[in-house]
Amino acid sequence: MKRLVDLRFILKELTRSHPRIIIRDSHTHKACHPKNFTDYDTIKHEFKFPQISGHFNFAEDVLDKWAEKEKAGGRAPNPALWWVDGQRREVQWSFEELGFHSRKLANVFTELCQLRQRDRVFLMLPRIPEWWLVNIACLRTGTVLLPGTCQLTARDILHRLRTSGAKCVVTDEFLAPLVDEVAPQCPALNCKIIVSHSNSRRDGWRNLQDLMSHVSSNHVCVKTPRDDPMSIFFTSGTTGSPKMTQHSQCSFGIGLTVNGKDVLWNTSDTGWAKTAWSSVYGAWIQGSCVFVHRMPRFDTSTVLETLSKFPITTFCTAPTAYQSVHFGSLQHCVCAGEPINPEVMQKWKQATGLHIYEGYGQTETVLIAGTFKGMDIKPGSIGKASPAYDVQIVDDEGTPLSKGTEGNIGIRVKPHKPFCLFTEYTGDPEKTAECYRADFYLTGDRGYMDEDGYLWFVGRADDVILSAGYRIGPFEVENALIEHEAVAESAVVSSPDPIRGEVVKAFIVLTAEYESHDKSQLVADLQTHVKQVTAPYKYPRKIEFVEQLPKTISGKIRRVELRKREWSTKPEAE
Description:
Layout: E1 3-4, H1 8-17, H2 40-46, H3 58-71, E2 81-84, E3 90-93, H4 95-112, E4 120-124, H5 129-141, E5 144-147, H6 154-164, E6 168-172, H7 176-182, E7 191-195, E8 206-207, H8 208-212, E9 229-235, E10 243-248, E11 263-266, H9 273-284, E12 289-293, H10 300-309, E13 314-316, E14 325-326, E15 333-335, H11 342-352, E16 356-362, E17 366-370, E18 384-385, E19 391-394, E20 407-412, E21 424-425, H12 429-434, E22 436-437, E23 440-449, E24 455-460, E25 465-467, E26 470-472, H13 474-482, E27 487-497, E28 501-510, H14 519-533, E29 542-545, H15 559-567
Parallel strand pairs: 2-12, 4-5, 4-6, 6-7, 7-8, 11-12, 11-13, 15-16, 28-29
Antiparallel strand pairs: 1-14, 2-3, 9-10, 10-21, 16-17, 17-18, 19-20, 20-23, 22-23, 23-24, 25-26, 27-28
């Protein structure tokens, strides 16, 4: 056990400026043995996708198999799902018990709600056991799950229900009124299920506990073709409404580097693909215990208390703590969600003695690249390609580029398309087709690959700044800025300029001790600093100090909002 001393300031600043995912073990595929992921080059060379037959169903082919192993004593005694609410309420279910409850719910869907295979179920619940039961019941019935965060507005819910044509919605008593606001505009919606532990009733809704009391636990899992739709995640782009990103039954047939003895706690919102990956499929395919805390929102004290009280071996959350923190058995840290600044990595290493290994992926792809165990870390790089993918830097036509040349980050899909790649943007074939060029799926991100095969993230394709003929990635400017002690966090976007077309503008949140400093002098100091750290042409010609940066619910900086704000005003000559 390593004691961390005098970390309050460092960790506060790390958390405020760069909320990241911290996880004990890096992501790999099931074909790569979790205990032996120390020779990346060999694993990458020898990697083969697991053979999946014409039919695959995670509930029957994975969860029920673990239940059988439990009965035979072939699995560690950990529960499959371990839920606490911080107020002495606790649920521990084995894989067998998960099967019992989820089969009953599957019968609710098919017998009482008249749902059929490929019908869509919109799920909007907080971190409660029923969320996991609905996930499994959808698998057993072949219905398509559409998770949504509990922070959605009525307008958001309307878009998701109407666009998806969902026939059933499952939510709690607090969110049901929002659904009722828009339900009359959703003709496909014919079943509304409410989860209420207070036995409250609401007109037009059916209580989940009541429904489950009227069905048996005998249910035969449907046979789902491996390419059948399994789940749809609404993912936001830089423009337009959220897209429906569809994954097949075998998309998540890959695992984390954990095993049956591990207890994994991931604090992601239940509406995000990250939760499906880490708190359902990635953990359970390895037979691990999924730990869940009801915690409505991230709370440092609750996290620290929970880590000290429960035998959690794998932790996935934001890197936040305070003075004299004990991290128990934490051995390995991974960040994901957006690029991490080298400065943050350095501070974290100095403060904790632990490296941060970066992972890079999308809702559409799961893990694309990362710095895996045993791999040398190059600060600022997002690592090497996942063994499952052939990742190349390509031009706009899909032609691979030479090492060191900036281009589109692409995944080879011909002659064989990786099964863990999303199948389509549902109902939007044009948007789906736009993602592909020649033999590659284009991620929409820009980057380059060095001579050692490491990938370097430059920015979203639409985030790259073109100023007087120079291409400038916002991340490299942000990297330079964060090294200055006055900068708590920053976001860099393009800003209109009558001479250069566009210039670099930085929105900066200052650290507390610099908030009272002369702003004009700070601008000059920061511009000089960037010129000294990186190529001078990249320095921010415009700087605006703000109290906070706009972010998504998951904590990612909304550069698109800042860029839109900039370009909605008339360019002014300098």
